[in-house]
Model the fold of this input.
Amino acid sequence: MAATESMNSIDTSAAMIAGPTQLADWLVLMPVVIPIVAGAVLLMARHEVRLHAMIAIGALGLAFAGAAGLLYRVVTEGTLVMTMGRWVPPFGISFSADALGATFATAATFVALAGAIFAIRDIDATGRRYGFYPFLLLMMAGVNGAFLTGDIFNLYVWFEVFVIASFGLLILGSEQRQLDGATKYAILNLVATTIFLVTTGMLYGTFGTLNMADIARKAPQLRESGPLMTIAALYLLAFGMKAAAFPLNFWLPASYHTPRIVTSALFGGLLTKVGIYALLRVFLTLMPVERGVLSELIAWLAAATMILGIMGALSQSDVRRIAGFVVISGIGVMLAGLALGSPVGVAGTVLYAVHSILVMTALYLLAGLMHEAGGSYSLHEVSGLYRSNPFLAAIALAVVLAASGLPPLSGLWPKVMLVKASVDGGAWWLAFAILLSGFLTTIALGRVFILAFWRNSPTAGDDSADFGGAGKARPGGYMVLGMLALPMIAIGVYPDPFMQLADVAAAGLLDPSGYIQAVFPGGGG
Amino acid sequence: MESALSVLVGLFFAVSIYMMLSKHTIRIVLGVTIFGNAVNLTIFTAGRVLREVPPIIPEDVVTPQTLVANPLPQALILTAIVISFSFFCFLLVLAYRAYQELGTDDTDEMRVAEPKGEGLPPLGY
Done:
């Protein structure tokens, strides 16, 4: 009791938040806490592999509900902040969910849920015993943590959480090609996160704080004296490497086609987008002036990433490797909006990122189903799928149209916004690069569709249904692809609410005063 | 003190980058480890080297009375050490397994995932 007395005698109001946290504010943590707890439970129950899928899908479903609820609250009430240990920011680590973070977290959790369902059929008992589902849940906790945290060192920690979980997923199976790909992926990603860390160390040395809102409001005073340009350039290097921007993208085509297809799908959908999120957050919220100086460089990187990425896809014959290069090309398109920095451009990038999370996952899963039906990933071998799997062909056409940015699917509108922003900003060559990369994507993926679906299989004259290589894809996968196609079609056909959401997210990035106000309500700290 | 540490950090970075430019995975892994230590020292230096006084506030007051050591960089470094150590362990095992499976630790010869001389995709039906 004596200790409590002396505690009470000290006035803690300057350092601690008085009163308990509102129950509704715990929503900020749900997309992170639920996957972490479920991942821990699965690690404890590692011998009960039969329960794994059920628990993981249930947890991701809950996390998705939490993320969607968070998105709704953030859109209606503005940025939601919760600081750990009730220390007043910037002393405590803040979680601050704004429209951007909540949108990304919702899309990511949705895709992870789809992946977990797909994995029921794709990952065998050995893979589950090896820990597929715990790794998946811990990776999701890391990804969502990165989207929602308001502290830049904490962002680094979440990066490491999802990176180390992704190592586990990548080498699941221990095949030769996986070890080869994982070596390159692991070393280059570790170098990227270490550069992120050293930059954060320099940032701390300059600002004396790690809270993002605090950095954002202190940057104007420190711009004259501090080495902010160095810090910005190093962040561009670190996050550009994580996002697979040219010329730092060579780890992606070396590794993304090697693991189980559902792992490839989740990597392609989620991990590079965390890099894009970090770029948006750092360059728009924290260092807008430095972004302006670097914008020309970012624009050239964007154009090079989209064009060279998709040219890589044109030269490949393995469907998974084509998908890897399409992911890279999409990163270039997202960087274009960052280079432009106008409200329409940033909104285009946000919408494109959501579209990319959905469509890149769908593209890899489609490759998996094509392999199941056609017996190969190589365009030299797989054929005649239109005859044997007409429903798969319909979904494949939707995915191809969406990835190429053709109507009536989700790829169209973000590209329209980005092209408009480029033309408005006078960067006609950037608009040209976006359109050219869309055209080349249409050729690369259209060729996949023509060769795998329309080309007759060599044995197709004998009208038996079970000829040669072309078998049936089991229908379970259709459901997952359909689940991913629904929001793609929704964005394509009825884009208004999604565009508004992207506008809100972009406005919150470009004018961080609301974000700062939410973290420091009294203006103190 | 900061200048001496800065020179040391510079040496660490130089050594680690030299190691990472090697073709052999084991040297790269060692380079990555030194890289991580260089970063830890950077954070330590960036947090200002003040006094070797523990940051403990006496019972009756609410702020430290003298110049004390900055505890935050130490907490950051502790986190970074734990992370980089676990990564080092993983990379070491991965490099060894890759050497076992692929029979080489020369990254130029690790071409199983991306074989040389793959032909073009079919150009027609």
In short: DSSP finds three helices and no strands in chain B. Chain B touches chain A through 46 residues (CB under 8 Å). The CA atoms of residues 23 and 108 of chain B lie 7 Å apart.
